[in-house]
Design goal:
The chain starts with 6 loop residues before the first strand and ends in a 9-residue tail after the last helix. It has helices at residues 116-121, 272-283, and strands at residues 7-11, 17-19, 23-29, 43-54, 62-68, 71-79, 82-86, 91-94, 99-103, 108-114, 123-133, 144-148, 154-157, 163-169, 171-172, 175-176, 185-192, 197-201, 207-214, 217-219, 222-224, 229-232, 238-243, 247-254, 262-264, 267-269. It folds into 2 domains: 16-152 and 284-292, Jelly Rolls; 155-259, Jelly Rolls (Sandwich), CATH 2.60.120. The strands form 6 sheets. A 7-stranded antiparallel sheet has the order 1-22-19-24-17-14-13, with no helix packed on it. A 7-stranded antiparallel sheet has the order 2-3-4-11-6-9-12. A hairpin with a 5-residue loop joins strand 13 (154-157) and strand 14. By secondary structure, the chain is mainly beta. It binds manganese (II) ion.
Length: 292
């Protein structure tokens, strides 16, 4: 390890808020005074639903019809089952371990709910929603939907039963993740057994952050408890991980999109004019139709 990447900041989860009535989330970014809007580009937003129990209900909780334009929403289930419908005609259910990668791009309406049968029994939920920004040239491309089951992830097995790495997007030592992304992104679940050490490398210019989903880890000699987010500086390539317990780490690293950014509400565009256009198009029904 010759070129260690230092830790910029370790964030404890900020106070939770509800998205609709179904997603109790901690927003790590944006809206964090220690991070600029582009600090984790291409990742624009990270909402983390830390573990919470939902009581049984016949009326699935969630968030009703709303628009998006200019980016992608990536939803990762660690516990719980989610249903999605959008005005591009795509729908799907993701269960524990699965990922839903929705490209809003030129604009969709969608709704996001707990899956019906899961709602009836209730249970433990833990999830992440990321907003992945798109470069200007792809912001108005066609909407797209990828349902990615855990069984389709790339798997890199560590020797001697030390754990494994699930590759959702990108390429870890030749193992390719199934998700299509418009810009270079590495997105993994690193799953390590207690006491295992792992060194991992990303290009220094890639913005990189780890969300500790399970267990306590030591990263570059700093102890990080579960539910914390580690933002790395762009001063090196190598990260040293030691698992103090059985551990799951959501690993995000991506090539920054070096463009102006103008987010507003459910839209992420490059200019204020494009935001005004998004509202005009939305109000004129150009995002299609989706019933509640
Ligand atoms: Mn949404």
């Amino acid at each position: 390890m010759k070129n260690l990447r230092s830790i910029d900041h370790v964030f404890v989860p900020p106070p939770a808020h509800m998205v609709g009535d179904g997603f109790r989330v901690h927003n790590f970014f944006p809206g964090n005074s220690l991070m600029s809007l582009n600090r984790m580009s291409p990742f624009f937003l990270m909402d983390y639903g830390a573990k919470v129990e939902y009581t049984p209900t016949d009326t699935p909780r969630g968030v009703g019809v709303h628009p998006h334009r200019g980016f992608e929403t990536v939803t990762i289930s660690y516990h719980g089952k989610f249903a999605h419908h959008d005005s591009a005609g795509n729908s799907g259910v993701i269960g524990e371990g699965d990922v839903q990668w929705m490209t809003a791009a030129s604009g969709i309406l969608h709704k996001e709910y707990h899956e019906k049968e899961w709602s009836r029994s209730g249970g433990l939920m833990q999830m992440v929603q990321l907003w992945v920004n798109l470069p200007a040239q792809f912001k108005m491309s066609h909407p797209k939907y990828q349902a990615i089951a855990q069984k389709d992830f790339g798997i890199f097995d560590l020797p001697n039963n030390q754990g494994h790495i699930e590759i959702i997007a990108g390429n870890f030592k030749g193992v390719i993740g199934p998700a299509f992304s418009f810009t270079p992104i590495e997105m993994y679940n690193i799953k390590l057994k207690k006491s295992v050490n792992l060194n991992i490398t990303f290009p220094a210019n890639y913005n990189t952050g780890f969300l500790v989903i399970e267990g306590t880890v030591i990263i570059n000699e700093t102890e990080i408890p579960s539910d914390n987010f580690v933002l790395f500086s762009n001063d090196g390539t190598d990260i040293q991980i030691e698992a103090l317990e059985n551990t799951i780490i959501l690993t995000l690293s991506g090539e920054p999109i070096n463009e102006a950014i103008f987010p507003y509400g459910p839209f992420v565009m490059n200019t204020k004019q494009e935001i005004l256009q998004a509202y005009e198009d939305f109000n004129n029904g150009k995002f299609g139709v989706l019933l509640d």
